[in-house]
Amino acid sequence: MKPKRIHIVGIYGTGKSTLAKKIGKILGNKIYDLDEIKYKRKYDKSRTVKERLKIIKEISNKKTWITEGTWLDYALPLYKKADLIIFLEIPKRTIYKRILTRYIKRRLSKKRYLKDNLKTTKKIMKKVKQYHSNQSFLTLKKHRDYLKKYAKKVIIIKTEKDIKKVLKKLK
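Predicted structure:
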């Protein structure tokens, strides 16, 4: 049986949005980006935790969905109600490469994002480093520990080959 509710989690640059789009295309499920829920205006003005939780609760009660994001705190209902949780545990060097590639592509395109500059890109890369070295609020260890509760419905992806296997199973 194909999963109806999927939550994709990982730190910045792991490919959450890309994977969500691919799975959404296969299953036809609506995709919800947790950053779109966190911010009233992308990467600028945040919603309150109460506002975020209300939106998350509404999404989690739907019959089908794909959500993707980094956060644990306000996303807890998604972990609980997901049929499948995909954890993107991509190597740090791959993440750095993706973040830099994204920055370059955005600079070369006409599409501009608020606060999308080299300083922000360096800040994101620093957060990725802290995530992997357990030096921040949200860390790789915290993600791993939290996901143990849901071990029966978690798939850990570390490589492109793993992604291809998951996509093939969902077809």
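Summary: The two ends are 11 Å apart (CA to CA).
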